[in-house]
Amino acid sequence: MIYYFLPIRNRTQNTVEYTAAIDDAYSIIYDSNVHLEKHELQYLRQFRHLFWFPDAIPQKYVFGTYDNSANLEAVGNIIVYRMINSSNGDYVKFVQDGDDLRAAYGLHAVKRHMFERETWIPTNREKFLRKWKNGRYLNCLGLNISNSSDKPVIPDHYVNNVAKFRDFLDSYSAVPFLFGGTLLGWYRECSFIKDTTDVDLAMKITSLDPRMLKNMEKLNDLKLFWILGKINDSLEVSVYSANIKIDLFFMYETKNFAWVGGMMISEKKKFRWVYPLISQICTGDLLGRLFHVPCNIEEVLEADYGNWRIPHPTANFTWYKSHKNVHEAGYWNESEWDDAYKWPNACHEVIKLDSSHRFTKGFPIKTDGIRGHCQAPHAECSNSILEVKFCTASLASREPIRLTARGGRNIDIQEMLRRAEMEKVSEDKAYNAIWVNGEE
Predict the structure, then answer these.
(1) 321 shares its domain with 213
(2) Residue 207: what are its φ and ψ, rounded to 5°?
(3) Strands of 431-432's sheet, edge to edge?
(4) Can you tell me the distance from the alpha carbon of 394 to that of 103, in angstroms, rounded to the nearest whole number?
(5) Last residue of some domain: 312, 342, 372?
(6) Out of 140, 263, 383, 385, which residue is the most buried by the measure of CB atoms under 10 Å away?
């Protein structure tokens, strides 16, 4: 019989009972030669609920409990952590006298008779130890940087969508962590940066399970948008959820530094962002959900932004040149391109512009390429509606896709789309287009 809970609850009756046969994932054989001294066993009898964390600390017996009244003083080789669930049940904190504070999400346990009593133990020792090792809990700063009157582009509740992607990656033993502007927003402001338009995560390439990439195409709530780069060079994945993009960067490590890659698709140009090595991963709470973060947060942020305490408006921040640590890294050649640029679920749409330079979002279509072109009745598209066909990859990649209008003026299609996306444009609502090298 298996008792399963996610996360660990403070009442055993809240667990779900399964009578299905135990599979390999739950067939954990713990050492049968575990022995405690008589006074240590006596000490453990005070706890109503007891969880054993084997191998958490070498040569120590580490336990956890939800009992608030219990005495947690160390006895012999025993160390006991107090366990506290987050308010929304997403994760559990492990608190010990002193500075040791840890947290973990997605824990599973079974009940066994050990230490002369009923004791909960992890169903998967390797997974638990990975979460414990990467579980040191850090607090964000909560600096008052953004204008409180600004309406955020990404609502707070979107953190639940990000947590779904977190759980998907976790199911493949990955350790994703907040990255880029999302890491900055968490650490500096304990939130998403108000004018940011996407979410950034990263994970080390060494923990990639190739099945994860294949199964991303089967996700329901998260839509795989594209896969950029290759496993051995500059891999990056983007998914969409509720019309907001989540970028997952893969971090490569050398002896002295780490880096992630990116590309300017229109030119097949590679870029690299260089970081100090991230030797330890910690955890932090973002809007009620637990995420991993680099333990050396400030070093990582300084590499990206320099003085990260000074806000940089997203509108003035260019992804391929504004970072302090970005470098050009050559080009993809033609023989590599089909493997380095895959967007299986990118959709195409139509933007309609009339002679007053206003537009509405159109309907999905099928077309080739990402360049806009004229489909109006008049050849020069003057005094008529101009339909611009584009691939949404141009929006997601943040590269300028421009259409030349009559008189030599250029329409920045990308900026129009970004504005439309932020304002949740409906088909019957129009907004001013952005004109480059001309008047609005």
Answers:
(1) yes
(2) -100, 10
(3) 386-391, 348-353, 358-361, 431-432
(4) 39
(5) 342
(6) 263
Question: For residues 109 and 120, what is the distance between their CA atoms, to the nearest angstrom?
Answer: 6
Residue 9 corresponds to which tokens in the numbers above?
């609850």
End-to-end CA distance of the chain: 69
Q: CA 161, CA 248: separation in Å to the nearest integer?
A: 14
Residues 359 and 327 in one domain: no
In a domain, 368, yes or no: yes
Residue 5 has pLDDT above 80, yes or no: no
Give the closest residue to 166 by CA, choosing from 283, 45, 53, 270: 283
Rounded CA gap, 90 and 6, in Å?
8
Q: What is the pLDDT of residues 71-113, one digit of tens each?
A: 788 889 999 999 999 999 999 999 987 677 999 999 999 999 9
Give every strand in the sheet of 410-412, ordered side by side.
402-404, 410-412, 435-436
For residues 335 and 361, state if they share a domain.
no
Q: Amino acid letter at 233? A: D
In tens, the pLDDT along 259-277 reads 999 999 889 999 999 999 9
CA distance 342 to 55: 42
What type of residue is 90?
D
* Distance of alpha carbon 152 from alpha carbon 138, whole angstroms: 24
Which letter does DSSP use for residue 267 in this model?
G
Last residue of a domain, one of 342, 375, 390: 342
Same domain, 78 and 186: no
If phi > 0 it is left, if psi is from -120 to 50 it is alpha, else beta; for residue 425 that is beta
Domain membership of residue 245 as a residue range: 156-342
Question: Alpha-carbon distance 411 to 307, whole Å?
Answer: 34
CA distance 363 to 231: 35
Residues 331 and 337: their CA atoms lie apart, in Å, by 10
Tokens at 28, concatenated = 């954990």
The total number of structural domains in the chain stands at 3
Given a contact cutoff of 8 angstroms between Cβ atoms, the answer to whether 61 and 40 are in contact is: yes
Spatial contact of 320 and 265, defined as CB atoms under 8 Å apart: no
Residue with tokens 């939130």, as numbered in its chain: 191
